[in-house]
Structures are given as structure tokens and as C-alpha cells.
Amino acid sequence: MLHALAVFAFVLWLLAFIQTLVNLRVMPRLNADLSPRNTPLVSIVIPARDEAHIIERTARAFLAQDYANIEVIVVNDRSKDATADILRGIGDPRLSVIDGVEPAPGWLGKTWALQQGSARARGELLLFVDADLIYAPSAIRGAVAELENSGAAMLTLLPHFEMKTFGEQVGMPMLAFFVFSGMPLWYSNRSKAVRLALGGGSGNLIRHDAFKSIGGFQALQGAVVDDVGLARLARQHGYATRAVRAENFLSVRMYDGARAVVDGFTKNSFPIMNRSYLMAGFAIALTVILHLFPYGFALTGDWAAIGCVVLITMTRIVIFRSFHYRLANALFLHPLMVTLWAWIMLRSVWITGIRNQIRWRGRTYDATETHFGAHR
Predict the structure, then answer these.
(1) Res 373: pLDDT
(2) Is the pTM of this model over 0.70?
(3) Which of 46, 225, 237, 241 has its CA 20 to 30 A from that of 81?
(4) In which element (H, E) is residue 245 found?
């Protein structure tokens, strides 16, 4: 029985390894040598709540773009720190600072801030981005050219993740691992399948007319994962979306330490499962079977379990090398990574499911009034 389970896991890991190689091979990359034929105004909309530690770097990086036709709109989402003062001290006429108001009923803080910023935007293209992203000078030029050449309505830019503490190095690689090993990216950019749409707070560049036709953030007002939700919403309305690797052009330190990683993904993990206890239980069981069981059973000398460990390690090495993560972590930290994420899922079930709370950025919401992406 256990050997059959190990063989099952081995087959899945072999397929995952092959898919990882294909995904990394075919996934398009942002090209700094490209320039768009047209240079429409790009409105960069940034929601910011208590971002004094990073917001000046973020804003100045956007203002330093070699694509000249931009406006930067930062929505100060009721910050209690010096975020607004820092922004107003920059003194660039292309930078507008909106003093946000508390969310309207039914809205989450971030989507409400994005709604306020998008209402002020004048650009033919809108770039929605989190407040902790640092863009290289050629990033927007390359993104506009990519969007123009692709003919898509929306382009998502995938970033480089900065990971400074041990906790970040354990937990954060799961994002790349899940996307490049678990998703058929080789097909996603060639399809309009809603569930395969990729979005990210690292940068969603969307045509303004398409954004308006899908209802903007009105349809995402209670979305816990608004960035992926925007891509799915666009596809639900028949628009093509596309994702590109842009780690050479933008970087983000998403969370600073293990506690921040756990808190950040606790608010997302169970909602991603559509608040289904059955799906959450299945995900945890599959995590144990595919990611932890092979390591324990390999100690018995079972060839399939040993093969699983080898394939897991090879998959991690390929991903870590491609994204310039520390290779030593690829070799030794997989069991710790998946254990951490299993704990995050359990914690998310408890807090967002049983206790019905979404807690983030000093606000607490009723989780029953939220959803993963757009309203169905």
C-alpha cells in the first residue's frame, strides 16, 4: 500500500518536473530592448497604508522611468505614519497623492484605495502596483511594448522576491514553486481559461477601456486576492491576459520575516479554496502525501520514495537557479517549507473560516462578506 502511494507520488513529481522545465523554457520575459510604437499615458496607481519605510524609493523609481508619459497616483489609505508627508515632500508634478477615506460598506481597504485611485486616473493604460515594488528605469517601457505586441488587454509582471531572513527563505519560494511547477504556464498565456489567469500586486497593466468594461474594482470590492481577481475578471469578460517574467526589472520584499509570511498568507489561503473545508482538507492531505511522506518513506529504501526526493530536489534546483535563489536552500528546506505552508492553511481555516475574520493592515473584516476574486 505505501509503496503504491510512493509510486503514485513519483509519477506526479515526474510530470511536475517536466512541466517545470517546459514552463521555464516557454514563459516570456520582459525585454528592455523593446520600445512601443505608441506612447500612451500610463497611470500608475499605488495603494499605500503605513508604507513610510519604502514609499519614497517606490515612488522615485516610477518617476525615474525612461518612459516619459506617466502619472503616478498614490492613495494614502489612512496611514498612521509619515507616508503622506514623505510623498508630498517629493515635489514632482507627475505625482498625485490622494488622501483616502475609510472603506465604504462591502469594500476591503486595498480594493477601496484602488477604486479611488483608478477614478482619478487619466491614462489609456492603468498600472496597478503595490507600494513596496522597486521598478528599474526601463520596466514600464518594456511592459507597454509587450502589451502592444501581444494584443492582450492585460499584462502581469512577475517580480524578483527579495528574501533576507531565514523565515522568508523557507516560505517565499513556494510562490515560484506553485506557479512554475503546479500550473500549466505553457498553456495559460495561450488560452482564456479563467482559472489559469495570473495577476499580481507586482504589476497589473491593463487597458483603461477594458478595465471600465469589466466594471473596474466594483466587481472586486470584497476580493481578498484582488490582483489575481482582476485577471480572472478580465478573462470572464472574454479578454486575453498575459503574464511575463520580469524579475530582472522589478523586485519586492513581500514580507519581512516568518511571522509576516504567516500573517500575510493566512488571510489568503482559505479564501483561495473558496472557503471550502473539503478543498482545504484535500490540499493539506495532498501536501502530506506528495511533499512529506516521500522523505519519511525513503528511509526504508523504497525506490519510488527515493525517486520522489530526487525529483523534488531537482525541481527546486531548476527553479532556484532560474530565479537566483540560494541553491543550498533548494537542497535542504523543502520539508520545512511545506510544513510551514500546511500550518498557514490550518491557521487560515481557523481564523478566516471558523472565526470568520480577515485581519490585515490594522483592520478586521467579516470573512463571510469577502471572496477570492470577483463576485460570481
Answers:
(1) 66
(2) yes
(3) 225
(4) strand 241-245
